[in-house]
Fold this protein.
Amino acid sequence: GDSVTQMEGPVTLSEEAFLTINCTYTATGYPSLFWYVQYPGEGLQLLLKATKADDKGSNKGFEATYRKETTSFHLEKGSVQVSDSAVYFCALSHFGNEKLTFGTGTRLTIIP
Amino acid sequence: DAGITQSPRHKVTETGTPVTLRCHQTENHRYMYWYRQDPGHGLRLIHYSYGVKDTDKGEVSDGYSVSRSKTEDFLLTLESATSSQTSVYFCAISDPTKQGAGQPQHFGDGTRLSIL
């Protein structure tokens, strides 16, 4: 079955540092890939997505590129802010099957 | 923000009691989902619905039942709650009738359930 493996946390960075959160997946075919973010006390929000190989999703300064050859979808941001502190989830789904498979989440804390 | 309301937001109850959580949406989306979130597990799908009275099991469905009598409401019931069901429960909706792959799910703010 499908699975998503993401970087173990927690991750603590200083403000303006470069961020990478690794995500790899195991799935048949060509799934769609997502990054969701969860702020304290809230539900998950879609951060970005990519639906085919070599697509780059981007939003709020975050980027991730769908790499079919390495089955990866790593999340990056060039300069993090305190407001980026949250839990980040990598996930996948297949077209026509709407269920999401999630990674375990990575807690990110940004220190001023 | 997608119009999704979960109720209650917090609940404390005792082992063996029945518990029902409600998810209400105003988006007229066809699909609705219930997940539980636990440390070290991410989100795991409990049950989902693909239309009124059409439901199916997810990966952690044991001990849970669901009902969907109208498009806007999806109920999750714990018939006899156990301490292992202490968790944060999230409802989500999606609209796969829109064209193209990668239709996202939209999440409610969650229900924190503690079973003593």
Chain B is about 0% helix and 55% strand. The two ends of chain B are 34 Å apart (CA to CA).
